[in-house]
């Protein structure tokens, strides 16, 4: 029993070390995205040596290849990149680094990418609320507001850099969802003449739907500071406003549901559910596929 107890205690210590340093994985992946390592390898058309990769990094005026070596070693261990060698290491063969299914989701120039979301989630502005959890337990409230003095939507309205970061992150995940919807739910849009995307961000999701079904009149509806940065899309009108006050009329509503999981009162979440039940009597797009692709996002 003493041996088993000692082994369990040692395993407990190892687990704490793992959680203590768990952030290192996220930071290493973020580093790879910022340096566009996956893009460099992809543009090369095949695996590359570290010297070749570092030569392709933009604005790397005095690069440290030993630093990159340590980062890539971790990312290979996490199966973000692969390694191979043409020669046996004892013969001095250079290691070649290649892409995996995971690193292909880090490509900036791919339509199906998670790079903007990763940069958003690991940005210091969105990491700061995580340090306010104990304060929220003691006092209640929203972690983001405790970290920055205002809620995320208000913060974005006065901070253009964060507004773009947040919109880009939301758009990339929404594009993944809409790709599935457009390709699988082919008969769902035929009878819809007009469609309003509530909380549609900069309109990229609605643009894909209207592109596939050009008979639809698209209305992209979001907060004024969000639609102010939206590009022009054929067949789409951008309208700014507050969904809790009123939304534009349309034949159908398209919406991703966001749950504010740490809001102690839950008021906005339940109000949004009631809002959906009230205005969605003509909602022709509700389908099991949409239930599987809805995003339950906890906004700290």
Automatic annotation (TrEMBL):
Keywords on record: Methyltransferase, S-adenosyl-L-methionine, Transferase
Domain of life, source organism: Eukaryota
Alphabetical list of InterPro entries matching this protein: COMT-like (IPR016461), COMT_C (IPR001077), COMT_dimerisation (IPR012967), SAM-dependent_MTases_sf (IPR029063), WH-like_DNA-bd_sf (IPR036388), WH_DNA-bd_sf (IPR036390)
Gene3D superfamilies linked to this entry: Vaccinia Virus protein VP39, Winged helix-like DNA-binding domain superfamily/Winged helix DNA-binding domain
All copies of domain O-methyltransferase dimerisation, residue ranges: 17-108
Biological process according to GO: methylation
SUPFAM superfamilies: S-adenosyl-L-methionine-dependent methyltransferases, Winged helix' DNA-binding domain
Protein name: Uncharacterized protein
